[in-house]
Amino acid sequence: MECQKEKNLARCNCTYEPCSKKGICCECLSYHLSRRELPGCCFPQEAERTWDRSFEHFARLVREGKI
After folding, report:
1. Burial of residue 53, with CB atoms counted within 10 A of its CB: 0-12 exposed, 13-18 middle, 19 or more buried
2. Count of domains in the chain?
3. Assigned domain for 14 exists
4. Model pTM?
5. What angle do CA 65, 60, 21 make, to 5 degrees?
6. 6 CA to centre of own chain
7. Cα dihedral sign for 13, 18, 24, 26?
8. Domain assignment present for 43
9. Residues of 26-48 as b/e, b for ≥16 C-beta within 10 angstroms?
10. How confident is the model at residue 18 (pLDDT cuts 50, 70, 90)?
11. Which Pfam families match (predicted)?
């Protein structure tokens, strides 16, 4: 399957500017999962800006009804 980087970038809410994986979802997902994290696109914008991509942060947001 061919990567649709430009299309992916239009939906990417990652605010980490030096990220080399932006728009390359398979690399982004693989990287974050290897660190017990989720990519920024799984979080609301205000939560993504904290750069806390942990499973625990995601679960907290779900419990608080923010996701």
Report:
1. buried
2. 1
3. no
4. 0.84
5. 105
6. 16
7. negative
8. yes
9. eebbeebeeeebbbbebbeeebb
10. very high
11. DUF6485 (PF20095)
Q: Give the span between the Cα atoms of 60 and 10, in whole angstroms.
A: 27
Task: Give the structural domain span for 45.
Answer: 37-67
Does 1 score more than 80 pLDDT? no
Q: Please report, for residues 27, 28, 55, the alpha-carbon distance to residue 64 in angstroms, rounded to integers and kept in the order given.
A: 29, 26, 14
Tokens standing for residue 36: 């017990």
Q: Which of 36, 33, 35, 61 is nearest to 47 (CA)?
A: 61
Question: Confidence class of residue 2 from pLDDT cuts 50, 70 and 90?
Answer: confident
What the block records as the tokens of 65 is 């009804």
Residue 60 falls inside a structural domain: yes
- The confidence score (pLDDT) of residue 5 equals 94
